[in-house]
Amino acid sequence: MGIFNNFSFIFLVIFLSLSANADVQRHRFVIQATKVKRLCKTHNTITVNGMFPGPTLEIKNGDTLEVQVVNKGRYNVTIHWHGVRQMRTGWADGPEFVTQCPIRPGGSYTYRFTVQGQEGTLWWHAHSSWLRATVYGALIIRPREGKSYPFPKPKRETPIILGEWWDANPIDVVREATRTGAAPNVSDAYTINAQPGDLYKCSSKETTVVTIDSGETNLLRVINAALNQPLFFKVANHKLTVVGADASYTKPFTTSVLMLGPGQTTDVLIRGDQPPSRYYMAARAYQSAQNAPFDNTTTTAILEYKSASCAAKKCNAPTPIMPSLPAYNDTNTVTTFSQSFRSLEKAEVPTDIDESLFFTIGLGLNKCPPNFRKRRCQGPNGTRFTASMNNVSFVLPRNFSLLQAHQQGIPGVFTTDFPANPPLKFDYTGNLSRSLFQPVPGTKLYKLKYGSRVQIVLQDTSIVTPENHPIHLHGYDFYIIAQGFGNFDPKKDTSKFNLVDPPLRNTVGVPVNGWAVIRFVADNPGVWIMHCHLDVHINWGLAMAFLVENGVGELQTIQLPPPDLPIC
User: Fold this and answer.
1) Plastocyanin-like domain spans which residues (predicted)?
2) Is 375 found in the same domain as 240?
3) b (16+ CB within 10 A) / e for 529-560
C-alpha cells in the first residue's frame, strides 16, 4: 500500500506541476444584430457581443477555454476554433452538420476544449452559411508561464485581421447565388481590423492606426479572415520577418510581402527602422482564377511612428506613404513566399505511409435540372456552379451531424466510400473534356484507423478554371512536404519532398494549376472535414470528411458528447 501511495503521490505532483500554470478561461459570446456603418451605409450586422471584429481571446499553451455561445440573432450559428487541434473534443470543433447541429435562434451551447502544444496565432469564426463574413476574431496562444518566444520579445503585439465587406447582407448574397446557380456577387471592400481604410468612401475617419516607436521591434499577428479571397499584404518601406504561421514557429525569414489564403495566419516582426512618419499597411487580392470577377480594391491601415503622430505635434499629419503591391495575378511572388517556410525545429514527419491518397480538387458545372426555370441556371451556358474532390460534390446532412450519426450508429446519414484516388485519371491541368465537368453529389467519408500515417496529394484541376485553393483540415496540423505545378508525378516529384523541416500548417494553398503533398498521423478520433476555405467553394461542395476511428483506451477515444449539444 505504501509503494502504491508513493507512486500516486509522485503522479499527483507531476500532474499538479503541469496543470498548476494552466487556467480555465470562461467567456460569453452573444450572437446579435448590431448597427454597423461602413461605406456610408448602416447595416444590421451579425456580431459577437456587438463587437466587429469580435473579441480577441488571449490564452496560454495548456489553457482550457469554455465559451458559452448564446444565439440572439435570426440565423442558425456555430463557432469554429480555426486550427485548434481539439484532441478528443470534436464536439467543440464547430462546423455545422459535421460535428454539431447549429445553435438555433434563442439557443445556446458551451464550447469546452484545451489548447495543448500550440503557440502563436489562430482565430475563431462562424461556420454556418456566410456568417463568418462578420463573426470572427483572433485567438492568441502565448507560451506557458516561465517559457518565452523563440525570438526576441517584441515591444508590442497587434492582431491584423484582414476581412471582406459586402455593402449588403452576406446571407442574402449567398442565398441569391444558391437560387440562381451563378457565382455570388463579389465583395465591396476589404478591411483591416474591420475598417476599409482611406481609399474607400466614408471610411478615412475610422482607418485602423498601428503605432510603433523608432528602434522598437513589434509583432504583427496577421490573419486572413476574408471570405473568398487570398490576399497580398505589405507595409510601405518596411521589411517583415516571418517567425510563425498557423500557431507553429518557423525558421525566421525576411520578406517585403505576405500572401495569406483565407484561414491562414502569419506572425511577423516589424522594426521601427525608418524615418519617423506614417506608412500605409495595405492588402489587396491575389487572383489566380482567370476571367473570374473579383474585388480589385485595396484596404489600408496606417503604421504611425509615435514621434510623427499629430497628438505629439498638434499638426496636420503627413500623408502616409503607399507600398507598391504585387500584380493581382503574381503567382511567382506567391511561390517564392510559400516556399520560404520551414519548421523551426527538425520535424517528426511520418515516413512509413499507411494511407497514400490522391485527391483532385476543382470546380464543376451541373446541367440545368429539367424542373428548373432558366433564371435558376445562370452559370456559364445555362448551368449551375458546383465543385468537388475526386469528383464527389460534398453534401452536408440536414437531420443529424456526421459526428452524432457516427457516435450513435445512425444509418443512412453518410457512407464511408469516399474514393482514395480520382475515379478517372486524366490530364488534370490540361485541356479537358466537358464530360468531366459534372461531379456526383454525395455524403461520403473516408475511414482512417487510429494512428495511421497519411499522405495526401492535393491536385488542382483546370475544370472550369484552375485556381489557388486554400485547403483546410479540421482537427489536425499537417506537414506540407512539397508543392509544384502541373500534374503530380510520383516518379520525379518525390525527390522534392522535404522530410527534414517542412512547415506545419492547418491550411495549405494548393498552387494554381499545381499540387501540394501533405502528411499527418491520424491520432485524433472523430469526424473531421477537409474543405476549401473560399466559402463560395464550400457551398458548391469542395469538401470531404475523414472518419478517424477510436484507438485503444480512454486517451485514444473521443469524449462523450456534452449534455447541451444542440439537436437538429
Assistant:
1) 31-145, 157-307, 417-550
2) no
3) bbbbbbbbbbbbbbbbbbbbbebeeeeeebbe
Looking at the structure, do residues 540 and 404 belong to the same domain, yes or no? yes
pLDDT in tens, 440-469: 999 999 999 999 999 999 999 999 999 999
The number of folded domains in the chain is 3
| Alpha carbon 421 to its chain's center | 25
CA distances from 401 to 148, 253, 389 (A): 40, 42, 21
- How many CB atoms neighbour CB 396 within 10 A? 17
Is residue 349 assigned to a domain?
no
- Reply yes or no on whether the pLDDT at 484 is more than 90: yes
Domain span including residue 474: 355-556
What whole-number distance in Å separates Cα of residue 32 and Cα of residue 170?
15
Element of type H or E holding 15: helix 2-20
Which of 149, 173, 207 is where one domain is finished? 149
pLDDT of residue 308: 77
CA geometry: angle at 296 spanning 137 and 171, to 5°? 50
In 3-state terms, what secondary structure has residue 536?
helix
Closest among 517, 568, 565 to 93, alpha carbons compared: 565
Alpha helices by DSSP H, listed for 356-483, are 402-408
- Which of 318, 343, 368 corresponds to the end of one domain? 343
List, for residues 292-322, the tens digit of each pLDDT value: 999 999 999 999 999 877 665 556 778 999 9
Assigned domain for 348 exists: no
